[in-house]
């Protein structure tokens, strides 16, 4: 009887292995991960306030810390003054152009009058020359008319020269417009940069999560790039499982997975294969292996596989990145339905 029981158990086990077990790919080289954000200082200065504590949960957009803004505010005020000055210079240049154009019109009218006077003086000389030659009029009168003609011509030439100079002055002032405009644009850029510096002095959470690795303290002097704290989105955990390359033949995106996190004891989480890394772990190591050597020993490589977890029902409060787990992927379905983002 005992032999029959053992045979039955063996048969059930073999059947289960044939239908299910041989399609399960498992590994305990798996750890919870989160796309954490390192919060760094963006401006230099002393820290005025730290508004969060270690391990505190924060919402996206919440203020985390404030850096002294007096220097940045002074630069902003200076930049705004530069904008006002550049704007005034630009307006002054335009006013000078308008004034010079009006002066051009006035000189042009004077030049027309001078030309008319010169033409009249020419006609007077032409009219009295025959009279003076015949004795009907005096030579003195003709000489006076010629002198007046020469003066009128000189005045006409002077008016023409003044008109040309006035027009060139308009061109000279117009050439200053692009310079004044560029100075105004540069001043506005300084205002924008200074405004960014003032805003960057207030550190805000870019995503929701929990505060970890907080190193910033009130009164501390920080430089741009200094580490302040880390923001961990514990609500968006996923599993990174390192499967052997020999286990990936039937593994596909969308296949279901069972995850046993050590912190949850025997409670299993549901998961879905989300994506495969574009290379083995050794390819992304700081010191890449060099297999082109005289002595070579083949080692089975591991490929990181991202598992999307369903944390809606259990374990979300106690799970944090870095926890170890064991995962088993069911590879029976080679063409699973693609997972829907956000599920």
Average pLDDT? 81
Strand runs, count: 14
According to CATH, the fold-level topology of the largest domain is: Helix Hairpins
The protein's oligomeric status is single chain
Shape: elongated
The CATH class assignment of the largest domain is Mainly Alpha
**Structural class from helices and strands?**
alpha+beta
Cα gyration radius (Å):
44 Å
Q: What is the CATH architecture assignment of the largest domain?
A: Orthogonal Bundle
Number of helices: 3
Q: Main sheet?
A: 6 strands, antiparallel, barrel
Residue fraction in strands: 15-25%
Kindly state the percentage of residues in helix. 40-55%
Summarize the structure.
The protein is an alpha+beta fold. The chain has 3 helices and 14 strands. A 6-stranded antiparallel beta barrel has the order 1-10-13-12-11-14. Strands 2-9-7-4 form a 4-stranded antiparallel sheet, with no helix packed on it. A 4-stranded antiparallel sheet has the order 6-5-3-8.
